[in-house]
Amino acid sequence: MIDASRTGQPGVPAWFLGIAFLGIGLWAWNEKGVLSNISSITDLGGFDPVWLFLVVGGVMFILGFAGCIGALRENTFLLKFFSVFLGIIFFLELTAGVLAFVFKDWIKDQLYFFINNNIRAYRDDIDLQNLIDFTQEYWQCCGAFGADDWNLNIYFNCTDSNASRERCGVPFSCCTKDPAEDVINTQCGYDARQKPEVDQQIVIYTKGCVPQFEKWLQDNLTIVAGIFIGIALLQIFGICLAQNLVSDIEAVRASW
To answer: What residues form the membrane-spanning segments (predicted)?
Structure first.
């Protein structure tokens, strides 16, 4: 038999992280009542951030299970599945990176469409709302390409038929921050887009999130590249470790 503790068990951290991510996702859905009404999954017009936890958690759980159990039980099928699955993920990441570099304009258009689609659904889901607010506050932006993108939302558009108090305004996350204020003024965006553009720049961010994201990428390119290289190296290490275990197990079985 192979001493798994000596040779290493690929997938153990991924297994526990996968369980944690799945737990967070299911807890979030339970809090929103989705688990008691499964049909509500399709009701949201925008992106539900919980899906990110569930998909990432599911993939990590499957990888972790295959790697850990495969090493403990000396199951070459599970170990090979772990290697191939991880290799496919690595290849997809590499392909996505190359395509994103080659088709930058298409990616920008898709990002613009994605943000605007979620602007429409801003009030439909609290998790989506928090995600948009965090994005706009972190990158100091408003809308996809500008504050007027909020005309797409039924509560913030400037049409005469809109009876909402938020008419022709923006969410509070678009507002410029006053360091002296300890309490967030959630009404700071009211009527903001009715003001002249010069006055708007004083109270809200007028730059869009797509160009701000591009600027952030350029400013932090080294860090972002380092993170992706680190993830790639961990994946390659996991594949090599699993293949090494498969070779050891097959060598021992061949000597019987």
So the answer is: 12-30, 50-72, 84-103, 223-246
pLDDT of residue 252: 83
Distance CA 47, CA 145 (A): 19
Indicate the DSSP class of residue 143: S
- The helix-helix angle for 221-254 and 209-219 (nearest 10°) equals 70
| Separation between Cα atoms, residue 1 and residue 71, nearest integer Å | 11
Q: Identify the domain containing residue 166 by its residue range.
A: 103-253
Rounded-to-integer distance, Cα 101 and Cα 104, Å: 6
CATH number of the domain to which 203 belongs? 1.10.1450.10
Angle (CA) 34 143 50, round 5°: 20
94-103, 176-185, 194-203, 233-242: range with lowest mean pLDDT: 176-185
> Which residues are CB-contacts of 193 (< 8 A; sequence separation ≥ 6)?
147, 148, 150, 158, 168, 169, 170, 200
Whether residue 74 lies inside any domain: the answer is no
Q: Confirm whether 43 is domain-assigned.
A: no
Residue 2 lies in a domain: no
The angle, 0 to 180 degrees and rounded to 10, between the axes of the packed helices 50-72 and 12-31 is 150
Name the pTM for this structure: 0.74
Q: Taking a C-beta distance cutoff of 8 angstroms, is the pair 169, 193 a contact?
A: yes
Q: What is the pLDDT of residues 99-120, one digit of tens each?
A: 888 888 888 888 888 888 889 9
Tens of pLDDT, residues 209-218? 999 999 998 8
Question: How many structural domains does the chain have?
Answer: 1
> Which residues have a Cβ under 8 Å from the Cβ of 52 and sit 6 or more positions away?
none
